[in-house]
Structure prediction request, 326 residues.
Amino acid sequence: METAVRAAVAIAQDPDNPLDCLRVREVPLPEAPEGWVRVQVKASSLNQHDLWTLRGVGHDPENIPIVLGCDVAGVTEDGREVILHPVIADPDAGAGDETLDPRRALLSERHDGGFAEYIAVPERCLIDKPKHLSFEEAACLPVAWGTAFRMLFGRAQAKPGESVLVQGAGGGVTSAAIALAAAAGLRVFVTSRSEEKRLQALELGAAAVFASGERLPERVDYIVETVGEATWAHSLKCLKPGGAVVVCGATTGFDPSADLARVFYQQLRVLGSTGSTLEESRAVARFVELKGLRPRIDRTLDLEQIGDGFAAMADGDLNGKIVVTI
Ligand SMILES: NC(=O)c1ccc[n+]([C@@H]2O[C@H](COP(=O)([O-])OP(=O)(O)OC[C@H]3O[C@@H](n4cnc5c(N)ncnc54)[C@H](OP(=O)(O)O)[C@@H]3O)[C@@H](O)[C@H]2O)c1
Prediction:
């Protein structure tokens, strides 16, 4: 086996020019310590998280350089086709919930990530790849679909027959949330800036679609919020009294008005959500296979073209997941 492998590496951090900090270069073949396994990466998908790392937001500069990529589909050395649970954490340290382990780390935060020919991960992270999905499709599941699953069913505890508004249609988390919520029997409303993406949301199972910020015909039980400042005020206005906005990200900014009067008077709940537990990642794989769901792929690139993918993601110019094959 080679002793060096090609990888996409964050070599520095710059809030204004994140793509200048990205290099595709050779790195040492990863070693698998006791309890870890080496996986040959077949495909890996891009996440906003990689851009945050390159910008220097939420990522310790001491962990630079690091191989980027939190989403992996690949093959173990004994031939098992897998996807990787992306959270490295100790459930005991989080009172049974590994996402509450203060030392939890997503792949590429403290351990080299998936934009490489090989990755080493704890053995517990291996999950059988859903059989109906290609490696490219399966590489979209762990972060975006795992996060959407936890938001809907772990944090919100949404039930069939309830209603949810997903803010945004073309994103990794939002497109997953639409498909998962519709397949689970929720009434799904979706906003998007683009007519084309609104039509695609209907194909994913949305009951009705709206332009970003448009008034809904009725209030909903839950909001899936990943957009942040651009949609937060609308999200709070769209909730039923007692409803919950579940927030996992803030692509357009972290500091919208909190609108506290509305929060207490309508008794709204704001639920943060991060990552997924191993059981939630396994449940996503099972649910997707059971329902025959397929992630939407915006485009597939070679590792050497990964910068083009990040440029499109930074411009918001994507519709579904961007996948790199390796
Ligand atoms: N906490 C966690 O565990 C976790 C996990 C995954 C992601 N995240 C975070 O969640 C966010 C989304 O991640 P992603 O990978 O799904 O990103 P993405 O694929 O780039 O999604 C962008 C989404 O934001 C919407 N959007 C962007 N700008 C908008 C604007 N000005 N107005 C209205 N909508 C806008 C887009 O909707 P349209 O294009 O349809 O309008 C699209 O649905 C990121 O901030 C990421 O860091 C957190």
Remarks:
- The two ends are 16 Å apart (CA to CA).
- Residues 141-155 form the longest helix (15 residues).
